[in-house]
Amino acid sequence: MLLLLTAPILIICATAIKLESKGPILFKQKRIGKNNQEFLIYKFRTMLVETEKDGKALTDTERLTKVGRFLRKTSLDEIPQCINIIKGEMSFIGPRPLPVIYLPYYTDYEIQRHNVKPGISGLAQVNGRNDLPWEERFRYDVEYVNNLSFKLDTQIFIRTIQKVLKRENIQIRGTTNIKDFHIYRQSQGKEGFS
Predict the structure, then answer these.
(1) How far is it, in rounded angstroms, from Cα 132 to Cα 181?
(2) How far apart are CA 82 and CA 42, in angstroms?
(3) What are phi and psi of 49, to 5 degrees?
(4) pTM, whole model, 2 decimals?
(5) Computed from CA positions of residues 51, 13, 92, 1, in that sequence, does the dihedral angle turn out positive or negative?
(6) Could you give the angle at the alpha carbon of 28 between the alpha carbons of 177 and 111, nearest 5°?
(7) Alpha helices, DSSP H only, in 46-119?
């Protein structure tokens, strides 16, 4: 049912991606889910497959396609995660699933975010998303875990719709001062906690 509801959008997005640049329609990456279990997350590909041009490495901003920029600004790149929901790996609401490489860098407090299924949107996303420092994002994630309820999920869902419609707090990776989490923790002299 979920895929049927999103099918028209999926088809339009997939066609636009394929027409604009070569490569797969979907981007897949290992992420950490509930109880620290790895799974493959699905997103629409928003970047060029090529990582360099004329022998020079391209930045994420340079690799971002026009269709990709639109998909990110409208959060449509997240729609394939409905597959993850159907597979039972994610839910609509929960802490965002982050890359496997981050796992050794969480504190005992922060890793509580993995006590629930990750979500397409969460408390951190409706309170600033990628504009927030890592510690603040994780504080919101743990707050969500500790206050899990249908009412809270409903509030987050409504605020997510508002944020998407207003296109608030949507940052393109590589265009903010926020470093990837593992690099951030390494810069603090922390080589991993587990």
Answers:
(1) 12
(2) 9
(3) -70, -35
(4) 0.83
(5) negative
(6) 60
(7) 60-63, 66-73, 81-86
How many CA atoms, within 13 angstroms, populate the side-chain half-sphere of residue 189? 0
Q: What does R_g of the chain's alpha carbons equal in angstroms?
A: 17
Half-sphere exposure of 166 (CA within 13 A, CB side): 10
User: Does residue 6 contact residue 68 with C-beta atoms inside 8 Å?
Assistant: no
Mean pLDDT of the chain: 89
Question: Could you tell me which residue, 98 or 57, shows the higher pLDDT?
Answer: 98
How many CA atoms lie within 13 Å of 165's alpha carbon, on the beta-carbon side? 6
For residue 104, give every residue at least 6 positions away whose Cβ sits within 8 Å of its Cβ, in sequence order, or none: 182, 192, 193, 194
DSSP state of 108: T
d(CA 121, CA 131): 15
pLDDT digits (tens, 9 = 90+) for 128-176: 877 899 999 999 999 999 999 999 999 999 999 888 888 765 555 555 5
Contacts (Cβ under 8 Å, ≥6 apart) of 135: 110
Q: Taking the CB of residue 48, how many other CB atoms lie within 10 A of it?
A: 17
